[in-house]
Amino acid sequence: MAKAQQPRKHYDSRETPTMSASDPSHQATTADQNWTVVAAVSRNGVIGRGDALPWKLRSDLQRFKRMTMGHCLLMGRKTYDSIGRPLPGRQTIVLSRSRSTVHASGCIVAESLSQVAELVEPGRQVMVVGGAEVYRQTLADPSPRCSTIWLTRVLADVPGDSYFPDVDWDQWQLQSSEACPSVDGDDWPTEFQIWTRRSDAT
């Protein structure tokens, strides 16, 4: 590059930075970031009902905590409101077009995926955890930023009003699949899958 990038400022979870997309000191790059979609989806595509999860899956929540600990969580405002607080041990980034509608103490607020990429320090793992619109934007992003999907398939048809976006699975390769019988605290059995984007995907 003809012009060296300025060093990135590190933001900790106590700050809620304000930044302009036109600021030339911020140049988005994801070459040194790993973005992963993390979702639990029923057989009929449901991911939510109202302001809550439409099931109790204790074992999946335990796996979610274990696999996301120490990483950045990217979520929409409604998802953050349903949780109500930053999750311990993880940096929370709330994606919203209108900063004035977000009341997220201890979180970073970003207005676009590009802004998220600018704010996240190199080498950090970004876990995209919902809701539906944030999933849609991430998976449709032309960059593409997301290279991995961690998918919990809930083996039941479940009523709900929020759905996982359509995915062109021909562009993804299934790396592993683990059957998870229901245990105490689980409404349904699940199947945990890891998908990676094909190198020839367009």
How would you explain this protein's 3D organization?
By secondary structure, this protein is an alpha/beta fold. It has a domain at 34-74 and 124-197: Dihydrofolate Reductase, subunit A, CATH 3.40.430. The chain is 17% helix and 28% strand. The strands form 2 sheets. The chain has an 8-stranded mixed β-sheet with strand order 5-4-3-6-1-7-10-9, sandwiched between helices. A two-stranded antiparallel sheet has the order 2-8. β3 (72-76), α2 (77-83) and β4 form a beta-alpha-beta unit. It is globular, with a radius of gyration of 17 Å.
CA radius of gyration: 17 Å
Determine the structural class based on helices, strands and strand pairing.
alpha/beta
CATH-defined fold name of the domain at 34-74 and 124-197: Dihydrofolate Reductase, subunit A
Kindly report the spatial arrangement of strands forming the biggest sheet.
5-4-3-6-1-7-10-9
Counted by DSSP, the helix tally is 4
List its traits.
two-stranded antiparallel sheet, Dihydrofolate Reductase, subunit A, 202 residues, alpha/beta
